[in-house]
Amino acid sequence: MIEVVKGGVSTTIQDLGRFGHYHIGMPPSGAMDLFSHKVANALVGNASDAATLEMTYDGADLRFEENGVIALAGAPMPAELDGEDVPMHEAVRVEAGQELETGFTTEGARTYLSVSAGIDVPEVMGSRSTYTLVGIGGHEGRTLQAGDELVTGENGAAPDTVVGNTAPEENLPDLENSNVLRTVIGLCDYRLTDESREQLCDVAWKVTPEADRVGYRLEGPELEFVEREQPFGAGTDSSNVVDVGYPIGSIQLPQKPIVLMRDAVTGGGYATIGTVIGADRSLLAQRRTHETVRFEPVTVEEALDARQSVQDDLAAIRTAIER
Amino acid sequence: MATEHLAAPMPGVFYRRSDPDEPLMVEIGDDVSEGDTVALIGVMKNFHDITAPHDGTVTDILVENEGEVEAGQKLIELTIED
Amino acid sequence: MNGNRIERTELPEPRYEFGGDDHVFVELDEAMSFDANFQAMAITQQIDERDIAGVTEICPANASYMVRFDPDVIHPETMVEELKEIAAETDISEYSWETRVITIPVLFQDPWTHETLMQFRDHHQDPDATDLEYSARINGFDGVEGFIDAFVGSPHMVTMVGFVPGLPWCFQMVPRTEQLEVPKYVQPRTDTPSRAVGFGGAFSVVYPVQGAGGYQLYGRTPIEVLDVDQQLPNFRDSMVLPNPGDILNYRRIDREEYDTIREEIEEGTYEYAIEAVEFVPDAFFEAPHEYNEELTKTGVSSS
Fold first, then answer.
1. In a domain, A80, yes or no
2. SS3 A8
3. Are the Cβ atoms of C228 and A268 closer than 8 angstroms?
4. B64 Cβ partners below 8 Å, 6+ apart?
5. Is the dihedral of CA C175, C180, C183, C184 positive or negative?
6. Subunit contact A134:C226, Cβ cutoff 8 A
7. Is the pLDDT of residue A24 over 80?
8. Which of A21, A127, A239, C289 lies 20 to 30 Å (CA to CA) from residue A322?
9. Going by CATH, does the domain composed of B2-80 fall within 2.40.50.100?
């Protein structure tokens, strides 16, 4: 068992996500930075679908009641286990009674903590991921607080076989310099004026403090829509379309862009104008408030190549661990 | 007498009230005790308490209420009696 | 008005658009129509039935649909080819589907939505009227009563579910000339009571949970459309009540009945009035009013 001593600003339990329910308005949830979640799990010998803690900006402090192994991945975060430094991206042994104290991320926004065999909370609709909006999944459907008690799974890898595992630096993203989001332009982009469509990919957009698991709200120039007589059912404002489903990663335009993330609103009447590709959604999840991002138009083939390259990095990390 | 600056541990918005209808948590000249919450940093609709590390007096507030702050930015000056 | 047919809409060539490397969005029309929605419904049902490897989400929307898939299993271009093939084989004139008529009791002009809408008059087109008074006026009704009569007079089809879990968008099952239409609030509200029944554009909605919203507010239902704890008997299989393709039949109730039903909901004893029906688009197009009467009659007899 793990006792939460301090919850941090926003710490939730996440796994790969909840699928098959988008059509009733249920977003997938799951780790925002899926890559780091998978790395954290690989380091301690877990399968990718084991639940980890997603800690945002600020870490959680935890007391371990059992022996086990933990690893931190993603945004660099200072951490000490009974006063001993815990390095990032390395599997570390914990003993019953030890306490982990964490600080604030020094770059990036989200740090993942894995424990051997994963955090064991009941699955809701096939996933342990927390979706706070309606309060389901994770620990009581909410962010962790001091006093919460978490149970870990059974049949984790034997500590001696995984302690000391590390992930090679060259296969990890450079969070500080990853501000380019490759984007497949499309969906309802015909609603934008030519000038605004160009502007979308020309300017640097600033991440606002409201950016969260639902969506990354960005600040920048106001984009303009083509004037038209609104079609039946679309509503009166020129930013409105007849309500559509929103892809995860899609950029919707109330006026300023919002990139929809893993707790997305699943549909609505704002024009969507493109979709950040799967490979780069993890990078966006690590962008901090006030940092900037740029959209770079790519084709679907390029998006698939990027996806392959992320998978190659993960495979390289797994190979390094197994060696 | 020594002065100490309380800094933002993360980027976000600096709040001097816990709620728009509440009074300011501290003003210049106020005495505070160790552990008192003197301000909040908000990000993603979540909040982090900025607390006084020692007993002391607030001698300066360097950011306007609801101003945007970067990680490490100085927020409040605290003067501590020796 | 009986005998008024639904005019069929000639749909343009669908637009197939990629949403990153893992979604395909298909716009069937820019405008809302039964043809566009039924086409979305029929195609998504066919995708589901084909059980295509790699498909993870199938989402019909008002006049479009979206599919999410694992590109490691199915290439995006192959996905589009599959969808085009299904579309070519789907003819809604020869189509029907199993659905449900769900009775939604509504207390119109209830005190809760009234308090909220009065709070947000400065966000509204007409600060001196209530949302119902405004909607009645711009739709050419003499008063609120006539407007409510029209609102409950014919059932509404759930053409899409989303935004948040359990929120149904519903399109009233009447010819275009009888369809109600109202703009959304000029500025969205920051608050809406849970279970509020609203209307915006050409769609009625039921807000599952308290929160922001921009639709005109008409009333409140005592019944839940979302039960995350799945305590109510009708939510054993799913925490969400409405599904795309369901038919909602709004029924006007008074305060006394509202309180009685609310009490039963809170005790977990309320039995939702849900009737399984077969929906035949062609028959509906031919004689919508007679068809609706048949649909809702069976609904009433079972409650």
1. yes
2. coil
3. no
4. B14
5. negative
6. yes
7. yes
8. A127
9. yes
The alpha-carbon gap from B11 to the nearest alpha carbon of chain A, in Å, equals: 6
| A73-92 residue pLDDT tens | 999 999 999 999 999 999 99
Q: Do C183 and A244 touch (CB under 8 A)?
A: no
Nearest CA in chain A to B13: A209
C65 beta partners: C26, C60
Q: CATH topology for C15-94?
A: Gyrase A; domain 2 (3.30.1360)
Q: Encoding tokens for residue C110?
A: 């209830």
What is residue C241's DSSP assignment?
A: -
Name the nearest CA neighbour of A212 among A247, A258, A174, A253: A258
pLDDT at C302 over 70: no
Residue type, C153: G
Q: C164: distance to nearest CA of chain A, Å?
A: 5
The first and second tokens of residue C63, run together, are 């006049």
CA distance A169 to A89: 9
3-state secondary structure chain B: CEEEEEECCCCEEEECCCCCCCCCCCCCCCEECCCCEEEEEEECCEEEEEECCCCEEEEEECCCCCCEECCCCEEEEEEECC
Task: Tell me which chain A residues have a C-beta less than 8 angstroms from the C-beta of B48.
Answer: 9, 57-58
Q: How many CB pairs under 8 A join A and C?
A: 179
Strand partners, B43: B46
Distances (CA, A) of A47 to A37, A43, A154, A315: 11, 10, 13, 13
Hey, are the CB atoms on C21 and A20 less than 8 Å from each other?
no
Query: B72: distance to nearest CA of chain A, Å?
Result: 10
Q: In angstroms, what separates the C-alpha of A104 from chain B's closest C-alpha?
A: 7
CATH 3.30.460.10 fits C98-302, yes or no: no
pLDDT tens-digit profile of C15-46? 999 999 999 999 999 999 999 999 999 999 99
Q: Which of residues 15-54 of B touch A (CB under 8 A)?
A: 42-48
Residues of A in contact with B67 (CB under 8 A): none
Q: Is the confidence at residue C1, as pLDDT, over 70?
A: no
Which chain B residue's Cα is nearest to A7?
B48
Q: In what order do the strands lie in the sheet with A52-56?
A: A11-14, A52-56, A110-115, A68-74, A92-94
* Prediction ipTM score: 0.96
Helix axes C76-89, C34-50, angle to 10 degrees: 120
Q: Is the dihedral of CA A274, A210, C67, C198 positive or negative?
A: negative
Domain of A192 in residue numbering reads as 176-311
- Encoded tokens for C145: 């009563």
Only one residue has tokens 């959304």, namely C184
Q: In whole angstroms, what is the distance from residue A132 CA to residue A285 CA?
A: 17
For residues C116-137, average pLDDT? 95
What ranges do the domains of chain B cover?
A: 2-80
Judged by CB atoms closer than 8 Å, whether chains meet at C209 and A134 is answered as yes
Q: Is A140 left (phi over 0), alpha (psi -120 to 50) or beta?
A: left
β C274-279/C216-220 pair status: unpaired
Is C59 in contact with A184 (Cβ distance < 8 A)? no
A105: closest chain B residue by CA: B10
How far apart (Å, rounded) are the C-alpha atoms in residues A36 and A42?
Answer: 10
Per-position DSSP letters for A158-178, written without gaps between them: PHHHHTT-B--GGGS--GGG-
Provide, as residue numbers in chain A, all residues whose Cβ is less than 8 Å from the Cβ of B46: 9-10, 56, 143
The answer for C88, left when phi > 0, alpha when psi is -120 to 50, beta otherwise, is alpha
